[in-house]
Write a structure and sequence with these properties.
11 helices, metal ion binding, 8-stranded parallel β-sheet, TIM Barrel, 251 residues, alpha/beta, EC 3.1.21.-
Amino acid sequence: MIGSALPALDTHAHIAPDVTSKQIAALGQSVTFAMTRSLQEARQISSRRDPALVWGVGVHPGVPAARDGWNSRQFTELLGSFALVGEIGLDRRGGDLTRQRSIFRELLNIVQSEPLLVSIHSTGATSEVVEYLHNADMRGAILHWFNGDSDDISGALEIDAYFSVNAAMSEDQLRLLPPERVLTETDFPSRKVRARKPADTQRIEQLLSQVWGQTPEEVRARVWWNLRTLCETSGAIDRLPEPIADTLLYL
């Protein structure tokens, strides 16, 4: 399937748990990975079946209420309903790093052997997050808005991590990332990215086209192929909504 025929791919955005079918339809032809910030939010959407969305079960490290609501048993019970965990990770500005580290360690222990995609936050803690992933022998990892240095990136590549990137990232940072490991994101509603809505990926596709010397259509086809590879190697393809899995299988 050529890039122009593929839907926009947003592998990290935030969508309200009570989003309506009409609001989802307004996103047009697109596929969005919809992160939750807490187990409470994840419970709200655990029974939803939205063909254009891949919902995640998350515990955002920088949200105190999410940390307060962490419960490993409840997370494990929810996990069977999801192909995606997100977002989780560490945030050096988010407070109570001791509690963040404890939760992140527990989460990785639970998900490391599951056929899942895992979207990981690493603000101010890129080296530490990569070290945690090594210790967990992690697979299916997607490092969201990753601004680590070349050593961090090398370490992430050693455990087959992928990188979701957005239009707020610099060209210099994007050039450090192997094209075969890159996915597109908006992190909607982040003001820095200036995406008008989830799956508004045109700006990052244009930026990658400049960095890679390819057309935006070729960029879109590249990131979809990357997602297929990641989903197959992690086993998550079997948990994805059927329309999205079919798109991957017929690339």
